[in-house]
Amino acid sequence: MRQTITIAPEEIARQLSLCDQVADLLSRSPGPKRAFVDTYGCQQNEADSERLRGYLARMGYTFTSTEEGADLVLLNTCAIREHAEQRVFGNVGALSHTKRRHPDQIICVCGCMARQDHVAKRLRQSFPYVDLVFGPQLLWQFPQLLLEKLSSGKRVFATDDVPGSVAEGIPVVRQNGLKAWVSVMYGCNNFCTYCIVPYVRGRERSRQPEAILAEVRQLVQEGYKDITLLGQNVNSYGKDLGLGVDFAWLLEQVNAIPGTFLIRFMTSHPKDASPRLFDAMASCEKVAPALHLPFQSGSSWVLKAMNRGYTREHYLDLVRQLRERIPNIVLTSDVIVGFPGETQEEFEETMRLVEEVGYDALFTFIFSPRRGTPAEKLPDPMPKEQKSANFQRLLQRQNEISAQKHQAYVGKTLRCLVDGVGADGRLTARTDGGRLIHLEADPALVGTWQQAEITGSSTWALFGRVV
Ligand code: SAH
Ligand code: SF4
Ligand code: F3S
Question: Which of 106, 211, 302, 363 could form a disulfide with 72 if both were Cys (CB 3.0 to 4.6 A apart)?
Fold first, then answer.
């Protein structure tokens, strides 16, 4: 068993006192200091940004929603696909102009891209105005790194491959008063052959159950109603702790916390999802009837080449067992089209799986080679045009299926959490299964649970009114 590195509470206390030193430095120039935190990628990054904001708030920063005129810009980046990286480089490039207008602006780049050596090198060589770069494993040291930058005036690069750790007690500034992310574990051990995450996020490590439960209890007391437990593979929660606990157990413990709130979680890896998990979901009344269970490909050959650790048949069997226990489950998934070596027939197997399972929603991606992953080097004979035609066909078919699934809700009455006001003035709400409802209702209802009668539907959403 790998020993999880726990950052000592005194270390975090030291980081907090460094925040105070930063605040002191900043107060030597007049006026309030504003920070802009720009987040790319998945919920893990959103959760990390909430902690970076926590540190920044402690340093005395207030927050702005644009880089223009911000005293500090922090880009929390994602490396999952080429497109994500290009967007970040484009935006870092554009910062040269804002920095020219505001020469004291401090520009920081962190997150998954920052942990890639070729990215760090490019930032060092081609973007001289970037002041601070650090990988996700060093997030807890952000105050120290920023102070180093501020007091030395030199650029700081903390992008080495240090082992991951678990740090408790970093302050958090959440952006929404109803929905909260709670990381239960960090990193990933699965090394799917296409995926960069294990390289940039390090090995799997779980938080102590008491720390997670205390955080959820606190959130519930503060009025949070929709809590998502996060990890790249939540089903391996606890394996490194040596306490004999697993994710199903954790769900039961969170469910036992008093209060009216909903528990969601992501992501579940099919190789580790089990009937034990489904039983726990079925018996815990606060756990949402929703599961995100990425299948990636409908072909067992492709799944093997992806190192996913399950077959098409095993996946379909899981879905069957899940639906036996929770018939109204809202099922969503991820799929990659055009993995190297995928034949047309193997793609058709993906089409058939999508048909057979009938997902409520599907996140579809075209394979994007990631530097240093095994799939980057695989022969990839299928022409781009064919991949993109397959992708379009899959997308179109899924849209029809999603539209049908939504249509089936019309006339029903469902519980939902009213969570905001949309651009069109109607309220937005989420069903327990996570479907979006555009709701006709009094804005005073934001933040409350309501029963909504579904009066219409589209590919993406439901329409309804409060009953
Ligand atoms: N830990 C999660 C996935 C995180 S990444 C899981 O295992 O399910 C989110 C999704 O991005 C993946 O499910 C996959 O579908 C997609 N993805 C990851 N790497 C990719 C790549 N190199 N090219 C295209 N899509 C990719
Ligand atoms: Fe990537 Fe696979 Fe880990 Fe998910 S389980 S983060 S796809 S390596
Ligand atoms: Fe992107 Fe890192 Fe998440 S690569 S998808 S932000 S774990």
Answer: 106
